[in-house]
Amino acid sequence: MPEDESAEQGPSSRLPSDGLQLRTAGAWPPFVGGGQRRCSFCGRREGSARHLVRSRDAYICDECVDLAAEAIAAAPPDAKSLRIRRPAPARSDPGATEEEIERVFETAIGGDTSDDERMELIEGGSNLGTTLELIRQRLPPDQRADSYVEYVRMLSEDEAEVHFVLVYPGGPTAPRFPFAGHAVLSDGHWKVSRETWCRLIGTIGIPCPPPPA
Ligand SMILES: [Zn+2]
């Protein structure tokens, strides 16, 4: 009987609740933290890999195992350190997807977006209205951050890793917090993954309700 690993995935138990202290990307391992298990090499989630092999706190997917085996077979005998790069997923519209994901993140996180529009841009966002209300209660308007996407890296046809910065009001000396999360293709639209949203608001102590059924 396989061991039950669900207990070690609960993101809510890891969220800080110490007021306004924000976690930066440095405190969050972008490939293994925040819930879903991912390949430590290519970043793909468990659901998009055929197999995910685990040892200690690292994971590797079947495709990265194959790439590593090829690299080892082709390496000169004295080569110690080898590097693999997983090929980017093939797409018909290179660039357009990244632009759309950038727009979705910068609209859903920060800015003057309406609650309805924000919920529409977050995966399973229909029951997140209460979290938006809590954000308003915690943060006065002049303390709300804007977000700027720094880069988008496609992981598969329906998922991308998104690195963005939260910029707080106050001009060039205002605090900036780097953050990493995921975009997912949900019902034909790119959205901020619910996991990313919940982790983000968790940094200011706001809990997420369970996903809508
Ligand atoms: Zn991999």
Question: How would you characterize the overall build of this protein?
Answer:
The chain is α+β, with helices and mostly antiparallel strands and 213 residues long. The protein has two domains: 25-87, no CATH class; 89-213, Nuclear Transport Factor 2, Chain: A. The protein has five helices and six strands; from the N terminus they run ββααααββββα. The strands form two sheets. A four-stranded antiparallel beta sheet has the order 3-4-5-6. A hairpin with a 2-residue loop joins strand 1 (52-55) and strand 2 (58-61). Zinc ion binds next to strand 2 and helix 1.
Strand arrangement across the biggest beta sheet: 3-4-5-6
How much helix, percentage-wise, in residues?
10-25%
**Which geometry do the CA atoms define?**
elongated
Percentage beta strand: 15-25%
**Contiguous uncertain segments of 5+ residues:** 1-33
Measured distance between first and last alpha carbons:
28 Å
Sketch the major β-sheet: 4 strands, antiparallel
Describe what is shown at a glance.
The protein has helices spanning about 60-75, 95-110, 115-120, 130-140, 195-200; strands at about 50-55, 60, 145-155, 160-165, 175-185, 190. With about 210 residues, it is an alpha+beta fold.
SSE map:
Blueprint: E1 52-55, E2 58-61, H1 62-74, H2 96-108, H3 115-120, H4 129-138, E3 146-156, E4 159-167, E5 176-186, E6 189-192, H5 194-202
Zinc ion binds next to strand 2 and helix 1.
Please describe the structure with a list of short key phrases separated by commas or semicolons.
213 residues, alpha+beta, Nuclear Transport Factor 2, Chain: A, four-stranded antiparallel sheet, 5 helices, 24% helix, disordered N terminus, binds zinc ion
